[in-house]
Amino acid sequence: xxxxxxxxxxxxxxxxxxxxxxxxxxxxxxxxxxxxxxxxxxxxxxxxxxxxxxxxxxxxxxxxxxxxxxxxxxxxxxxxxxxxxxxxxxxxxxxxxxxxxxxxxxxxxxxxxxxxxxxxxxxxxxxxxxxxxxxxxxxxxxxxxxxxxxxxxxxxxxxxxxxxxxxxxxxxxxxxxxxxxxxxxxxxxxxxxxxxxxxxxxxxxxxxxxxxxxxxxxxxxxxxxxxxxxxxxxxxxxxxxxxxxxxxxxxxxxxxxxxxxxxxxxxxxxxxxxxxxxxxxxxxxxxxxxxxxxxxxxxxxxxxxxxxxxxxxxxxxxxxxxxxxxxxxxxxxxxxxxxxxxxxxxxxxxxxxxxxxxxxxxxxxxxxxxxxxxxxxxxxxxxxxxxxxxxxxxxxxxxxxxxxxxxxxxxxxxxxxxxxxxxxxxxxxxxxxxxxxxxxxxxxxxxxxxxxxxxxxxxxxxxxxxxxxxxxxxxxxxxxxxxxxxx
Length: 487
Prior knowledge:
30% helix, 11 helices, alpha+beta
């Protein structure tokens, strides 16, 4: 399978797109004023400890306090490793107000929620993830060959795997022992530096910052399956090449400059795909469509046959639409970076065999997702419930803001509704004040409605108040905005 990574770097924004078989699958965005926080390590200060929630709020220098649950707090020194903090009767046995505490960001701030923290630090490198407070060696489940799993585990254990906990990443498959040892030495030295910085740092101070987006792309995504990485900026290209020569010299040759006249994201219409990923409706090739609704609590996906009428019978039409939807849903989850609880409302099928095949198809489509997902069976109501690990904001939250016109409700009042609101406001003011005439200022659509379909109602209103009413269209007014001015 052909896989390419496109990297677009500007002074204030970096973007990376993963393209498989000419189709955009994932998009990463990092802006200078809103860099992702996941992976950063801070010297935090406990501002509030809430025994009723078994949690604490930690100040780390952000606008909102960050959240630290008792299950994410390392037990006090002297206790046996592996003690579950939930066994403590009170979270105050683990942390108190005013305490300084070394924390790492698990999840970026999302919506109205602050960042999610942990004191169990993890440090990733090219082939390994180091957990200084952990124990043992784990191997990525994506490495399926048992002989290779055993080789990697033994290599890490023999190289000092008893010094903390280690996870062997998927990209380590086939890696030489020397490369694993070099990663271990690097991570152990990095942890030593972080500890020294933490001792000198003041409260709410950043101790360690994760790599920038272009370098994270290389660390996390560049592997044997990637054919090439195209970079459109010479400075970023030099930085990425140097990083690759240090940590992955065998793959450094796959990083290439892009010097085309067209913007790099025009190669596979990436920007067009981004625009489509911000829409609620996703059309399917058959004529069916998906509807995405993202809320703070969960994301719902509704599958519809639309204009697809099939060829054989209703059950076959529904089954084919659902199968196509399953593949499209898996791609949209990656592209939109949707996380948390996700409810999929497939079209109801009567055949139990079709339900099983649909679930299997969805599992296969999700297998290529780097983010961990959990899928449940089809519920009694015909819904498929799933979760997808959420560590950063979705594409919609990164690129959009709540609608100022509708108050982020997702809909606006009709021109007719606004016109009648203006009528009521006219009557209210006519009963309270003296005036010569009234002026209604509103959106163009509302004014046109008053002059056309509601002209008779406007005339009746003038008779009721006994004064003339003038209309004025305001180009800068939103569809729901209006003013009634006494003249």
